[in-house]
Specification:
The complex is a heterodimer. Chain A folds into two domains: 6-144, 2-Layer Sandwich (60s Ribosomal Protein L30, Chain: A); 150-220, 2-Layer Sandwich (Alpha-Beta Plaits). In chain A, α1 (19-36) packs parallel to α3 (60-68) and α3 crosses α4. Chain A is built from seven helices and eleven strands. Chain A is 29% helix and 33% strand. Chain B is mostly helical. Chain B has helices at residues 6-16, 20-32, 36-59, 72-82, 89-106, 122-134, 138-158, 163-166, 168-186, 191-203, 221-240, 249-262, 279-291; one strand at 110-112. The radius of gyration of chain B is 18 Å and the shape is globular. The chains are: A alpha+beta, B mainly alpha. At the A-B interface, β1, α1 and α2 of A face α2, α3, α5, β1 and α7 of B.
Chain lengths: 236, 292
């Protein structure tokens, strides 16, 4: 089933005009911000396909910028997000890409973290009704929707790593709904993505980070609306 | 979810002795692991956003960034009030409200995608106008949104809901089917009648292409939302009167998939054909580009 629940049909709450070009784009930006794990100081945004053809009219550029500021799809600041990003010290550029791309609505983001200088390249597609998939993170093939609490684990590929990860999950009583793993090469760097039924706790993340093969652990969760974000620090 | 088709949905409703909305709430809670109260509260918030959008569209300036659209909802409302409209009454009201929400969307205001932003006017248009007319409580409307969601869930997973994939039949057509089925249930129709309403409505939108001028969610999207609200009311009335969708609704959904898949790319939200490529459509696109 491509669409999993009632709120992938009724919803999201969003700022118009297009669920694919605006809400979906905002979610891709926000997912990238969460994968980076810190605000970005540089963002190079490349649009493909229908995104490239109509991004200005649909405010897709504004939606991406808002997502990079961690705004939800219904945040009333989205229309002003490019200016807000500039105020926050984010250098953001938009371009149209050529070559092959996986879906009519595709965007590729290259980010540089403001605090650590970490770089991230991420490709997202907008599949309709505001629903998205992240299909590539730093060259790893993934399938991540952000609609479930998601844990991303960068680790080394060797025997038993996955077993130790799932063991931590079992002990902590976290059920895995979907799981994917991609590696650069045998015994090389790998990325495992776990979609969970419940939000990951700090304790769970701590235990995962303590595993010897694990290099980093990130969390993506796009479920919050702007109303639920109120009172939290969601500015960069 | 324990159903994949509309007929399975109707059977489940009968087995459990509940309406589509109540059943969907139960299924949703089972799927998410959150309580029914939590799920209901989320949908309730969404209904609040829909009301807010109708209000904004009926009272504020909704001129879009492109300057191409805006304020038609208010034009229709004042015409409804002052003149002798052809449609008039509740249908005129539903049409104005649907235009209002769609115009708020085009002007980058807050809306709920139902199922998409391009079709976001139809369900609020039908729901709010009927709520005012029949004096229904908010909670009753929220249960209606769960019913609409159940219908949309089946359409989305067996066919499509986005214009880029299946044309406007997938977008506006799905919303009309969802609104028609939900309204049938809200008016006291059985799940079987509600499902007939979906088939009746969808049959009337088969083949509708997605041809937005300049690629924007404005022309013809906004007026199609206005028309869509009226079609949903008509489909609900037919179903409540006992009219059946002789081709079962699940088969109509499959036809939508067939027609949409056969549609050339230029008629699927690329602005490469249809109204977007008329002389006027091309001129608008050129003007928009030179403004940038």
């Amino acid at each position: 089933m491509r669409f999993k629940d009632v709120f992938s049909i009724i919803g999201p709450a969003m700022v118009g005009p297009s669920s694919s070009h605006t809400a979906g784009a905002a979610r891709i930006g926000r997912a990238a911000r969460q994968v980076l794990g810190e605000p970005a100081r540089e963002a190079e945004v490349t649009f493909f396909g229908s995104f490239a053809a109509t991004y200005q009219g649909h405010g897709t550029d504004r939606a991406i910028a808002g997502g990079l500021l961690n705004f939800a799809t219904d945040d009333s600041r989205l229309p002003d997000s490019i200016e807000l990003a500039a105020e926050a010290g984010m250098e953001i550029s938009f371009g149209q890409g050529t070559g092959l791309f996986p879906h009519p609505n595709t965007v590729r983001l290259h980010l540089v973290g403001a605090q650590t200088g970490t770089e991230l390249t991420l490709t997202g597609i907008s599949i309709g009704g505001g629903n998205i998939e992240i299909v590539d993170i730093d060259g790893f093939g993934v399938k991540l929707t952000g609609m479930y609490p998601t844990v991303l684990i960068h680790h080394m590929d060797y025997l038993g790593v996955l077993a130790s990860v799932t063991d931590v999950m079992r002990k902590g009583q976290f059920n895995i709904g979907h799981m994917s793993l991609d590696r650069k090469n045998r015994s090389g760097a790998a990325l495992t993505v776990l979609e969970l039924d419940e939000a990951a706790t700090p304790g769970l993340l701590h235990e995962l980070r303590a595993l010897s093969a694990v290099k980093s652990v990130k969390v993506v969760d796009l479920n919050e609306s702007a109303q639920e974000q109120k009172g939290k620090d969601n500015t960069p | 979810m324990n159903f994949q088709t509309l007929s399975q949905l109707a059977v489940l409703c009968e087995e459990r002795g509940m309406g589509i909305g109540a059943l969907m709430l139960e299924e949703q809670s089972g799927e998410s692991g959150r309580s029914k109260e939590q799920e209901f509260a989320t949908m309730s918030q969404y209904y609040g956003v829909m009301k807010e959008a109708v209000h904004r569209g009926m009272t504020e300036d909704t001129t879009s960034r492109s300057g191409l659209t805006g304020l038609d909802a208010q034009r229709v409302a004042s015409y409804n009030a002052a003149d002798e409209p052809c449609l008039g009454g509740p249908a005129g009201q539903a049409m104005a409200y649907a235009l209002a929400v769609s115009e708020v969307n085009a002007s980058m205001g807050r809306i709920i995608a139902t199922p998409t932003a391009g079709s976001c006017g139809i369900i609020p248009g039908v729901f709010l106008s009927c709520q005012e007319r029949f004096g229904w409580e908010d909670d009753y409307m929220v249960s209606g949104l769960f019913a609409a969601g159940a219908i949309g869930y089946v359409i989305a997973n067996n066919s499509f809901v986005s214009g880029a994939e299946g044309g406007c039949q997938a977008e506006v057509g799905s919303a009309i089917g969802m609104a028609a089925g939900a309204l049938t249930e809200l008016r006291g129709g059985t799940p079987a009648q509600a499902i007939h309403a979906v088939g009746l409505a969808l049959k009337n939108t088969l083949g509708l292409i997605c041809d937005p001028v300049g690629g924007l969610v404005e022309i013809p999207c906004i007026v199609r939302n206005g028309f869509g609200a009226v079609t949903a009311l008509a489909a609900a009335d037919m179903a409540l009167a006992g009219v059946r969708s002789v081709i079962p609704s699940d088969e109509v959904i499959k036809v939508m998939l067939e027609v949409g898949s056969a549609m050339p790319e230029k008629h699927r939200e690329t602005a490469g054909g249809g109204l977007a490529q008329t002389p006027t459509g091309r001129k608008i696109m050129k003007d928009l580009r030179s403004k940038k």
